[in-house]
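Encode chain A's predicted structure.
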Amino acid sequence: MPSKLSPDLSYGEKLVSLFARLVFTGEWCSLTQLSRELGCSKQTVLRLIDDITHSYQTRIEHEKRGNRSYYRIRRALSPHPAAMLSRDELETLLMCRAFTEHLLGQRHFAELSRAVEKSSQLLIDEAELDTQRFGIFRAGVIDYTPQQEILATLMDGMKRHKVCEVSYRKPGDQRAKTFRIKPLKIFAWNETIYVHARYAKMPGRPFRDPGYDPLLALQRFRRAALTDTPFRPPRNYDFEKSLNRHFGLIQGNVFKVSVELKGWAADYVAERIWSPDQKLRRRKDGSVRLDFSAVSMPETVSWVLRFGAMVKILGPDELKRAVRERITEVEALYGW
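Encoded structure for chain A:
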């Protein structure tokens, strides 16, 4: 019979000890027995069991025998082959974890880390897995830690097809506004997490469909609550057709863009896809001509200005005027 642990052990040390006790033995242990071995109260043992269950999604079996409670983690005789990951698959998962840490936030990053930790124990070869091989440059990233509960609520709404009541502050607004949405898709763009949704009726208020689906930046949510109101996912909803057909997140009328780029800008642009219909032509002098379709003039103007003197607009004239106006505003700001 295992000896009693020191009562001076920290809560974390007792949690690890309990987890190891249940995992490695696979036998039924009474609450009284665990309390004695860990040197703590039965209430503390129950809290430890609850933390293990929720943190590692581990199924701890419970049964009553008379007035006593018994617990165990059933030992699998052998891992199911389909559940095992290869070393290459695990390393790919590590890479994805590193590249998306700033988007996941602490809660979901911890869940992914636990998945990696548990999967790494199933590796057949004994070579140590290098978990520090990948990283990310963090300048300008958004800290999504305050939005973790909100994100979980929105994900729950999508999964259960329930309307969510949210508090959201748009750029330029002094206060957040409360309204209801049907969350349809959570996606990442330009290092930012967005929610693609449809508006839903607020109780006691008249509802008129605005005719467009809102794109809501996760960091601007102040609150989100799941309601009891169900919604039916729209049959005609197609995220790829809605947002991945042209350049620009803000949806507007489609227009064609033609630009010439040189120097570092030519290489930068040639390495990326800006629109599914783009046409890229390289020239002998190293410059490129890029033709693509866009739906957002403000975003296209910002995109052009990022390249400075390395880009020349060939069309449309509306884009030329918009860029010229922006440059004039900058000149006025500095008194040039």
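The chain has four domains: 11-72, 80-141, 145-239, 245-334.
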